[in-house]
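step 4 of 6: structure.
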Amino acid sequence: MNESFFQLPQEKRMAIINAGFRVFSRHSYKNSPMSEIAAAAGISKSLLFYYFKNKKELYLFLCRHSTELTQQEITRQGCYDREDFFDIFLSGLKVKVQLMKRYPDLSLFQLKAYYEKDKELRGEINKLIGEYSGYETQAQMLKLDKSRFAEGLDLKMMYTDMYLASQGYLWEKLQGGKIDPDRMEKDLTALAEFWRKVYSRK
Amino acid sequence: MNESFFQLPQEKRMAIINAGFRVFSRHSYKNSPMSEIAAAAGISKSLLFYYFKNKKELYLFLCRHSTELTQQEITRQGCYDREDFFDIFLSGLKVKVQLMKRYPDLSLFQLKAYYEKDKELRGEINKLIGEYSGYETQAQMLKLDKSRFAEGLDLKMMYTDMYLASQGYLWEKLQGGKIDPDRMEKDLTALAEFWRKVYSRK
DNA sequence: AATATGATTGACCGATACGGTCAGGAAAGG
DNA sequence: CCTTTCCTGACCGTATCGGTCAATCATATT
């Protein structure tokens, strides 16, 4: 990892990073050619190897960087100071949208990284972005104030529903290749408000 | 397409078909090697080329076959004689589950085919399994009896929610590589019953 | 102007993967 | 036996890709 990479003008550095997110989020690790990343960044393949000594280093740098960026944005937005469940969801959404404006393919990159199966990478990815625990366990751990939600509502199922629908939305956009932060904010906000209305105690 | 393929003992023919579904559902068309399909089917690559004159022919056969199978199962289950919306959803689920028991990767194969981007294939896929119209339009076309659902419920959003969550579930299982029809039936039935409870008029 | 230093490239290499072919060996049937 | 069908391993040409390298370009220094 050549230090000069960090001395690059922001524009060029971002171009390389985004090119990496882009290509890796659309194919598996193995099927993401360095040449394509270089082309997407507007530089030569050789120069890419000048900054990163090999493909693995680039990939792992992007893993690390993506979590740093996410963490940064989360604290910047003060996500977890909220107490209303749907507000938390919405602020989480805000984070993704803000991030997506600067790094259109970041969340898709992370999504793919969670599921990357390459033997040589799997272990290191876990260290960098954390193992994905599955929505079932997340739903288990949820501690919510029952009195704020509709009577008799199964909160675990509610969470499952919300999680799966958001995930389904993301996958759909990923496959379609259409990434539009504003559209995404609009769609998912509408969903969240729908849920708030349906699930809240009257 | 060698006619002798259809004279094969069912077991062997199914092995080949399922191998095709399996491999094509896990990679893109381009990245699905014929050798891997052959290996998964327990035959030699040469024999696979004996039955199908090239990769494209095999792929398109699988497209055709998967829709035929689905269509068959749908009429067999008499899906659309039901009138209750959630019953329709559940019978659709039954179709998928039944099919999945014989062809574990069929629905994943179709899901991938909808999004396959290969220039040479795109047109023919549409002809065989139909173009995917997007859930938004599906939600538009929905004609439901408002009086059966909770008062003031946004039916379009309800459908969007249900569609995205089911889709999210499928993607999640696809990526995790864990395909278990019974598990799927259990999970999605639970979701459907949850929705029925929340969305129905009290 | 000469030189040194780092940035950047195109051409190239070795390895590998893959679609497809082919000559010929088993099997099955007569 | 012989013929036809089934089936395989070895092989080929091509394309791709990670990575290298010598050469060039830009810039700053002497």
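step 5 of 6: annotate
 - The longest helix of chain A spans residues 55-77.
 - Chain A touches chain B through 31 residues (CB under 8 Å).
step 6 of 6: archive
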